[in-house]
TrEMBL record:
PANTHER family: GLUTAMATE SYNTHASE [NADPH] SMALL CHAIN (PTHR43100). Gene3D superfamilies: Alpha-helical ferredoxin, FAD/NAD(P)-binding domain. Pathway: Amino-acid biosynthesis. InterPro entries: DPD_II (IPR028261), FAD/NAD-bd_sf (IPR036188), FAD/NAD-binding_dom (IPR023753), Glut_synth_ssu1 (IPR006005), Glutamate_Synthase (IPR051394), Helical_ferredxn (IPR009051). Residues 1-20 are annotated as: Disordered. Residues 25-131 form the Dihydroprymidine dehydrogenase domain. It comes from the Bacteria. Keywords: Amino-acid biosynthesis, Glutamate biosynthesis, Oxidoreductase. The keyword DNA repair does not apply. Residues 146-467 form the FAD/NAD(P)-binding domain. This is Glutamate synthase subunit beta.
Length: 497
C-alpha cells in the first residue's frame, strides 16, 4: 500500500493546465508539455488503500485504482500499466475525457479532498506509451469465427480489441473517412489530440483487427448482407439523433447543430480545410445547452476568435457543495468550471454561462441571417418562463448543444435488422447486450448492441465498459463460453441515491 499517513501529510494538488493565454493560441491539449511527474506520484501516495474502495463503484470499468495508485506512488510504471490495462483498453482516452466519478466516490471525499485519480490515470497512460508498455497482443490461435463491429468509437474499438485478442477475426466498419467516431470529430483536439487514437489503431492493426472506413452500413452497405458474411455483429454506432429547438426563427442562416460545428473545426486541425465552413471568428456566439458539448463549442469559439460567447443553461446554477439529494459516493450536481469556462472567464472576468435561461425565438436580418436571440429566465423546477425576464442577446452564430435522443432514426440498421426501440428511443436489448427484434422480425439473431446506441448518450468510460461486456456476450454466443470480462450489464446505471 502507499504511505498510510499520506492523505494527512499531503494536500490535494491537481496538475495545473497550461496558462490560458498560451493555450488559446493553439489546438494542443490543455496539459500538453506539462510535467506530470513527480507531482502525480506524490498525489498517488494520498490513496488510503481502503478496505472497501468505493472508487471501484464510481467507475463502471471497475478500475483497480488503489493498486495502480500504489505502483504509481513508487514509480513502478510497468506494474501500474499492467493493472490499469487489466480493466481498461484505452486509459489515455478516459484519463483525458472522463469527468472522474471515481474521485467523487473516493472515501476521502467524505470529509476531505479526494485523490487526483484522473491525473494519476493520465500519467500512467502517458508512461505506458513513453516506455513501450503497450505492445500488440495478437491471439495465439484463431477461432475461425468472424465478427463485424459497426462503429469505431470507444465502445466499438473496445469490443473489437477484446474479440480480436480472444481469437476471432474482427472487421470494424466506420461510416466516416477516419476512425474514432466522436473521439475523432466530436472531441476538440485541445481535450485530446488525435495521435492518441492513431497509435491505438496501429496497435489493433498489429493484433489483427481489420478496419473499413467509408462503410455506411444500413445505407450503401446492406446490413443484412453484412450479417450473412459474419458469424456475429456488434452495433456500436452511438447516439446520433440530435435534439432540436423548435422555436420561431430556427430556419435562419447561422444556426447550426453543435456536432457539425465541432466536426468542421476538427477537420481543420486534421488538414482537410484551410478554414472551417462555419467559424466563430469575429462573431457574437450563443451556445444553447449547458453540457460538455456546449463547453467544447465554447473552447472552440474562443480559439477561433469570437467577439463574444454566451452559453445558455436551462438548469439553475448548482451550489458549491453536495446536497442531501446527491450524497456520497454518488456523482453530485455541483458548480463546476471546465477548462473552456476558465478560458472565457479569464477573458471577460465573468462566467460565460447564463443559468435558468431558455430560448424563446431567433431574430434575423432582411437577408435571413440570425442576428439576435430572445431568451427568458425560467422557474427552477417547472421550467416555465418568468414574466418580465425576457431579454435579447446579439447572436451572429448560434450553436445547438442540446444532446442526443438515441441512434439515428432513419438508420437502415433498424429496418434491415428489424431492431426494436426501447422507451427512450435506443436500440432495445436484453441484459446481455443481444439486440431485440421488433415484432415479427428475425434479423436480430447474433446481433449485439454496445455503447450509446443502446444506453443513450453517456460517458466514454461507460462506452468502453459496454464494449468489453458486449465482447464477452458475443464470444459466449460464438463459442458457448467466455473468459472475457463483463464489467457491466446492458441495464446497469450509474450509482445514484
Amino acid at each position: 500500500m502507499t504511505d498510510p499517513y499520506g492523505f494527512l501529510r499531503t494536500p490535494r494538488r491537481p496538475v495545473p493546465p497550461r496558462p490560458v493565454e498560451e493555450r488559446l493560441n493553439d489546438w494542443h491539449e490543455v496539459y500538453a508539455g506539462q510535467t506530470l511527474l513527480p507531482l502525480v506520484s506524490e498525489q498517488a501516495g494520498r490513496c488510503m488503500d481502503c478496505g472497501i474502495p468505493f472508487c471501484h463503484n464510481g467507475c463502471p470499468l471497475g478500475n483497480l485504482i488503489p493498486e495502480w495508485n500504489a505502483y504509481a506512488s513508487r514509480g513502478d510504471w510497468r506494474a501500474a500499466a499492467e493493472r490499469l490495462h487489466a480493466t481498461n483498453n484505452f486509459p489515455e482516452f478516459t484519463g483525458r475525457l472522463c469527468p472522474a466519478p471515481c474521485e467523487e466516490a473516493c472515501v476521502l471525499a467524505l470529509n476531505a479532498d479526494p485523490v487526483t485519480i484522473k491525473n494519476v490515470e493520465q500519467a500512467i497512460a502517458d508512461e505506458i506509451w513513453e516506455r513501450g508498455y503497450a505492445p500488440p497482443h495478437p491471439p495465439h490461435r484463431l477461432s475461425g469465427k468472424t465478427v463485424a463491429v459497426i462503429g469505431s468509437g470507444p465502445a466499438g474499438l473496445a469490443a473489437a480489441q477484446q474479440l480480436t485478442r480472444t481469437g476471432h477475426t474482427v472487421v470494424v466498419y466506420e461510416r466516416a473517412d477516419r476512425l474514432g467516431g466522436l473521439l475523432r470529430y466530436g472531441i476538440p483536439s485541445f481535450k485530446m489530440e488525435k495521435h492518441q487514437i492513431d497509435r491505438r489503431i496501429e496497435q489493433m492493426l498489429a493484433e489483427g483487427t481489420k478496419f473499413r472506413t467509408g462503410a455506411d452500413v444500413g445505407g450503401e452497405l446492406d446490413a443484412g448482407e453484412l450479417r450473412r458474411r459474419h458469424d456475429a455483429v456488434v452495433i456500436a454506432v452511438g447516439a446520433g439523433e440530435r435534439r432540436e429547438l423548435p422555436v420561431p426563427g430556427r430556419e435562419l442562416t447561422g444556426i447550426h447543430q453543435a456536432m457539425d460545428y465541432l466536426t468542421f473545426a476538427n477537420r481543420v486541425v486534421e488538414g482537410d480545410y484551410a478554414t472551417p465552413p462555419v467559424t466563430a471568428e469575429g462573431r457574437h456566439v450563443v451556445i444553447v445547452g449547458g453540457g460538455d458539448t456546449g463547453s467544447d463549442c465554447l473552447g472552440t469559439a474562443l480559439r477561433q476568435g469570437a467577439s463574444s460567447v454566451v452559453q445558455l443553461d436551462i438548469n439553475p446554477e448548482p451550489g458549491r457543495e453536495r446536497t442531501e439529494a446527491h450524497p456520497w459516493p454518488t456523482y453530485p450536481k455541483v458548480y463546476r468550471i471546465s477548462h473552456a469556462h476558465e478560458e472565457a472567464r479569464g477573458r471577460e472576468g465573468t462566467d460565460p454561462r447564463l443559468f435558468s435561461s431558455a430560448t424563446l425565438a431567433f431574430e434575423g436580418d432582411p437577408a435571413g441571417r440570425v442576428r439576435a436571440l430572445h431568451l427568458t429566465e425560467v422557474e427552477p423546477q417547472a421550467r416555465r418562463p418568468l414574466p418580465g425576464s425576457e431579454r435579447v442577446l446579439p447572436a451572429e452564430l448560434v450553436l445547438l448543444a442540446l444532446g442526443f435522443s438515441g441512434p439515428e432514426r432513419d438508420s437502415g440498421l433498424r429496418t434491415q435488422y428489424g431492431l426494436a426501440l426501447d422507451d427512450r428511443g435506443n436500440f432495445a436489448r436484453d441484459g446481455a447486450f443481444a439486440a431485440e427484434g421488433a415484432e415479427g422480425a428475425d434479423g436480430a439473431d447474433g446481433v449485439f448492441v454496445a455503447g450509446d446506441a443502446g444506453r443513450g448518450q453517456s460517458l466514454v468510460v461507460w462506452a468502453i465498459a459496454e464494449g468489453r461486456a458486449a465482447a464477452a456476450a458475443t464470444d459466449r454466443y460464438l463459442t458457448g463460453t467466455t473468459t472475457l470480462p463483463a464489467p457491466v450489464t446492458a441495464h446497469d446505471r450509474p450509482l445514484v441515491a
